[in-house]
């Protein structure tokens, strides 16, 4: 029964720890312990802010500026779209009609060449034939 909350502890475990903490500290020392905890949190925040300022001064770059170099933000589709600029997809890919005319014309020419003198009973090309096997080639 592993919790997924604070430090891997669930809600009930945190409640039990809080009750144990209150019993150990006691009501007399609770205000002093709370003030000390607040002091530690403020010192930690001040230390983080000072460290951030030092890094920004030393590197000459803000932490927020470093986020634009995060590799998780890169989407290949967006990068390609930006690289092509204003070019639409329709301008890059030929239309189906143009492909059909070009492919149909080339296919008809190739079929006519392949079927000269080699038509079957129905007069249609049988398609590509398998290359003959050569025993001596291997």
Structural features, described:
This protein is mainly alpha-helical and 138 residues long. It has a domain at 9-103. It has five helices and no strands. The longest helix has 49 residues, at 11-59. It is elongated and about 100 Å long. The chain starts with 10 loop residues before the first helix and ends in a 24-residue tail after the last helix. Mean pLDDT is 74; it is low at 114-120. It holds the Pfam family TatA_B_E. GO terms for molecular function: protein transmembrane transporter activity. This is Twin-arginine translocase subunit TatB.
Summarize the structure.
The protein is mainly α.
Low-confidence stretches: 114-120
Decide which structural class fits the backbone.
Answer: mainly alpha
Which percent range describes the beta-strand content? under 5%
Strand count, sense and closure of the main sheet?
none
Rg result: 38 Å
Mean pLDDT: 74
How many β strands by DSSP?
0
The percent range for helix content is 55-70%
Distance between the termini: 65 Å
Q: What is the string of SSEs from the N terminus onward? A: HHHHH
What gross morphology would you assign? elongated
Q: Helix count, per DSSP?
A: 5
Topology overview:
Blueprint: H1 11-59, H2 63-66, H3 76-84, H4 89-92, H5 96-114
Which key terms come to mind for this protein?
single chain; about 140 residues; mainly alpha; 5 helices; about 0% strand; elongated; translocation; protein transmembrane transporter activity; transmembrane helix
């Amino acid at each position: 029964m592993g919790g997924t909350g604070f430090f891997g502890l669930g809600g009930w475990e945190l409640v039990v720890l809080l009750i144990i903490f209150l019993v150990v500290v006691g009501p007399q020392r609770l205000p002093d312990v709370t003030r000390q905890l607040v002091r530690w949190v403020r010192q930690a925040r001040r230390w983080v802010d000072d460290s951030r300022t030092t890094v920004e001064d030393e590197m000459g770059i803000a932490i927020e500026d470093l986020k634009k170099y995060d590799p998780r933000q890169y989407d290949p589709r967006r990068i390609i779209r930006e690289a092509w600029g204003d070019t639409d997809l329709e301008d890059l890919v030929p239309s189906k009609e143009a492909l059909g005319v070009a492919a149909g014309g080339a296919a008809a020419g190739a079929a006519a060449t392949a079927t000269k003198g080699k038509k079957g009973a129905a007069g249609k090309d049988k398609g590509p034939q398998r290359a003959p096997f050569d025993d001596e080639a291997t």
